[in-house]
Amino acid sequence: MLKGKTALVTGSTSGIGLGIAKALAHQGASIVLNGFGDAEGPKAEVAALGVKVGYHGADMSKPAEIEAMMKYAAESFGRVDILVNNAGIQHVARIEDFPPERWDAIIAINLSSAFHATRLALPAMKKANWGRIINIASVHGLVASAEKSAYVAAKHGIVGLTKVTALENATTGITCNAICPGWVLTPLVQKQVDARAKAMGVSNEEAKKQLLAEKEPSLQFTTPEELGELAVFFCSDAAKNVRGVAWNMDGGWAAQ
Ligand code: NAD
Q1: Ligand 1 centroid vs 14 CA: distance in angstroms?
Q2: Is 157 among the domain residues?
Q3: Domain containing 194: what range?
């Protein structure tokens, strides 16, 4: 379905980003990966699906590096047809204890990076009159939790950015939508599981159960593979008039 298209997925050396990159690769899209840590393993996983794969290590908190990444993608792959703004970090603390530099980093990586990548991707998408921009928000783009001020602010912000991007391009072949996962057991969440296990003096398994029971009625983690399939739907022709939605996949979290 996506043969001949190129997808750039930020923060795709791990977790949800890698899951989405693989789902798009399954559909035949060429993939540009981005993120920290080992890039060779994720590159090999995507290449094994028989598509062209590239990597750029831009730090998404730095607009100049985002520009370099978009330039690399355009030069090596022709154009970015599908942009998945996924890179994100978390920090958990009450507002009065929240380190200002963590606030700035979360706003830069979880929100501003999507603005920069989007503004740089749009001109070529407009020329082709086709594009898909998918912002990985969170259920925290729809509702809040205590001790996550920066994350909740950034995720509500990215839902707003999604709507504006959709509206500004509503008469074109470019759509923009957000995905709002509940708990997904990635390294980002494993850190929160570990912290809970330590604080409550319980096992890792018990901490996972508690985390789910508190917020997610299905008592199940969503998987990167499931989120990948939703991204594939947004890229399909059937979704060409799905514009500006914030679609939760959260086991009923936001329905409460
Ligand atoms: P993860 O920690 O597994 O992956 C994060 C990715 O972002 C990694 O590839 C990492 O290298 C990259 N990254 C971090 N900082 C970066 C930077 N400055 N520049 C470039 N890349 C950077 O986390 P994940 O759970 O897969 O999260 C991915 C996205 O999904 C995030 O936006 C997160 O907020 C969102 N999300 C996650 C969950 C969850 O439960 N895991 C739920 C809702 C939303």
Answers
A1: 7
A2: yes
A3: 185-221
ipTM for the whole predicted complex goes beyond 0.90? yes
Using CA atoms, how far apart are residues 85 and 17, in angstroms rounded to an integer? 9
CATH number, domain with residue 18: 3.40.50.720
* 168 occurs within a structural domain: yes
Q: Give pLDDT tens digits along the chain (256 positions).
A: 999 999 999 999 999 999 999 999 999 999 999 999 999 999 999 999 999 999 999 999 999 999 999 999 999 999 999 999 999 999 999 999 999 999 999 999 999 999 999 999 999 999 999 999 999 999 999 999 999 999 999 999 999 999 999 999 999 999 999 999 999 999 989 999 999 999 999 999 999 999 999 999 999 999 999 999 999 999 999 999 999 999 999 999 999 9
Instruction: Say what the pTM is.
Output: 0.98
Q: Is 151 a catalytic residue?
A: yes
**How many separate domains does the chain show?**
2
**Position 1 in a domain:** no
> In a mutational test of the pocket of ligand 1, which residue from 31, 33, 46, 89 has the highest number of ligand atoms less than 8 Å from its CB?
89
Q: How far is CA 254 from CA 56, 134, 205, 224, 234, in A?
A: 35, 20, 24, 19, 21
Q: Ligand 1: which of 8, 10, 16 to mutate, judged by most atoms within 8 Å of the beta carbon?
A: 16
